[in-house]
Amino acid sequence: MTHDDSTASPVPTTLPTPSESEEARYARGLAALHQVTGGESSAILDAISDIAPDLARFTVAFGYGDIWSRPGLTPRQRQIATVAALAALGNAAPQLRFHIAGALNVGCTRREIVETFIHTSVYAGFPAALNALAAAREVFAAHPADDDPVVKEAVDGDRYQRGLDALRAVDGPEGVHVVASLDDIAPDLGRYLVEYVFGDVYTRTGLDLPTRELASIAMCTALGTAAPQLRVHIRAFLNVGGTRTEVVETLTQMAGYAGFPAALNGLTAAREIFAETS
User: Fold this and answer.
1) What's the whole-model pTM score?
2) Please, is 153 exposed, middle or buried when counting C-beta atoms within 10 Å of its C-beta (0-12, 13-18, 19+)?
3) pLDDT tens digits for the chain (278 residues)?
4) Please, are residues 99 and 136 in contact by the beta-carbon 8 Å criterion?
């Protein structure tokens, strides 16, 4: 897949020079935060203002003014990436509930959120997915909406063949190679990867493929233990129509939710894949 010059070098070659005042960054961050909260003040920030007011300020000015307000991803993409990462981490239930509500506020549907957490079962396991869905249930009860997140899709035909077709469409020869590499040690795991991951989950209709891959990048980055898989999913995201800029923005977003080391390691993986696909 080729990419135009606008996405070929998304990382600046020189350090940016700060030019905005703290007040301007804070004001932009507060506007972005209000978009996520639906205009309400954030109880999470209020809860730390008495003990760490500077952290509350950093959250608004940096987290929302500097990062969330960047133009490289839509608000919907940012919230899907964020809930995916928090679900995978499994250690931030209050923030997960906050961002599930935020996802609804910026236009994500309840179906998309549920599908993101079904997708989480692949990358962080069933306990993480089940806990995330419990959080979603609480948020949905407080935010009634017209769309119905409960969809039971029919599973017909040959799961393995359906999964193999999806694997080839998303990952190309690389994905098939991963499955084949398990033949000598765990062939059943390779079969499960094809049947469940791609035959059952990836072929579901609740999320399009670019959004699934964006969520996969966010989860693999946040977990910090899946560098080879992260490279696979960065490549897959580009294969299904994502851009380098969106990859870099997703990894930058992860600095706020999984830490700078996770984001930096993710960017190292991205640099490798970008060099392959130039």
Assistant:
1) 0.90
2) exposed
3) 444 444 444 544 455 556 678 899 999 999 999 999 988 766 767 888 889 999 999 999 999 999 999 999 999 999 999 999 999 999 999 999 999 999 999 999 999 999 999 999 999 999 999 999 999 999 999 988 777 777 777 667 799 999 999 999 999 888 899 999 999 999 999 999 999 999 999 999 999 999 999 999 999 999 999 999 999 999 999 999 999 999 999 999 999 999 999 999 999 999 999 999 87
4) no
